[in-house]
Amino acid sequence: MGREFISIFENWANSYDDTVVGHDLQYKEVFRNYDGILDDVVKRSGSKVVEFGVGTGNLTAKLIAAGKNVYGIEPSKSMRDIAVSKLPKGTLVSDGDFLDFPAPPFSPDTIVSSYAFHHLTNDEKREAVRRYGKMLAKHGKIVFADTVFKDRDSYISAIQDAKNRGYYQLAEDLETEHYPTISEMETIFTSEQFSIAFQKHNDFVWVMEAAKL
Ligand SMILES: C[S@@+](CC[C@H](N)C(=O)[O-])C[C@H]1O[C@@H](n2cnc3c(N)ncnc32)[C@H](O)[C@@H]1O
């Protein structure tokens, strides 16, 4: 479930870290202020963190550098291998995904993710949030950085804008992956008894901080 896009990451793994620093013009805006976005997720996190969609381990490294205990989950073997090679020895990164993952070795106070939650359909997102609600105590947090659109019109304009610029791969991503609107994310979190606040970082990415009520 939710693993429909893994082959993209098996192929992207080796050049992914070049993309996040802006080497791919199509994704330059998506990754604008990438480090600041990850730092914002770290700043909002507690001390016992489960991270989904670790990728090449860039957020994981920042969480560890901030002294947090981190358990990472990543479904792509190529991404996982790069993450493990970059992270301090002994960092736990398991095979799993947002919905199907080995139990963490501690009770988390925060669940984080960056640039990954849109791989789930909205129904799957809600199911994931429901499960995380069971893992977290009251006031436990979910902190996700991801592409979200203000509304459906903004989403349609972003696709058109990508096509106008000749960014056909970006346009295809936007059309095929499951990018939500702010109000869809609000519905998902509030229906599962979380409060939610949003902070915009660039034309695509928002940091969402949800707290269990
Ligand atoms: C764009 S990368 C982001 C990597 C990293 N979090 C970052 O901020 O650079 C998306 C990651 O999500 C992973 N992914 C895709 N589908 C997933 C799923 N269903 N559950 C968890 N992770 C998933 C991919 O394998 C990939 O490593």
Task: Give a written overview of the molecule.
- This protein is α/β, with parallel strands linked by helices.
- The protein has a single domain (6-212), classed as Vaccinia Virus protein VP39 (Rossmann fold), CATH 3.40.50.150.
- Helices cover 42% and strands 19% of the residues.
- The protein has a seven-stranded mixed β-sheet with strand order 3-2-1-4-5-7-6, sandwiched between helices.
- It is globular, with a radius of gyration of 16 Å.
- The two termini are 28 Å apart.
- The site of S-adenosylmethionine has 23 residues, from helix 1 and helix 3.
Structure described in brief:
The chain contains 8 helices and 7 strands. The chain has 213 residues and is an alpha/beta fold.
Briefly note the structural class of the backbone: alpha/beta
How many DSSP helices?
8
Low-confidence stretches: none
CATH architecture annotation name: 3-Layer(aba) Sandwich
Shape: globular
CATH class: Alpha Beta
**Strand order of the main beta sheet, please?**
3-2-1-4-5-7-6
Tell me the total number of β-strands: 7
Give the domain tally. Answer: 1
- Give the proportion of residues in helices: 40-55%
Domain Methyltransferase: 49-140
GO molecular function: S-adenosylmethionine-dependent methyltransferase activity
EC number: 2.1.1.-
Function: Could be a S-adenosyl-L-methionine-dependent methyltransferase.
What is the secondary structure topology, with strand pairs?
Elements: H1 6-20, H2 34-44, E1 48-52, H3 58-65, E2 69-73, H4 77-86, E3 92-94, E4 110-114, H5 122-135, E5 141-147, H6 152-164, H7 168-176, H8 182-191, E6 194-200, E7 205-212
Parallel strand pairs: 1-2, 1-4, 2-3, 4-5
Antiparallel strand pairs: 5-7, 6-7
Bound molecules: S-adenosylmethionine.
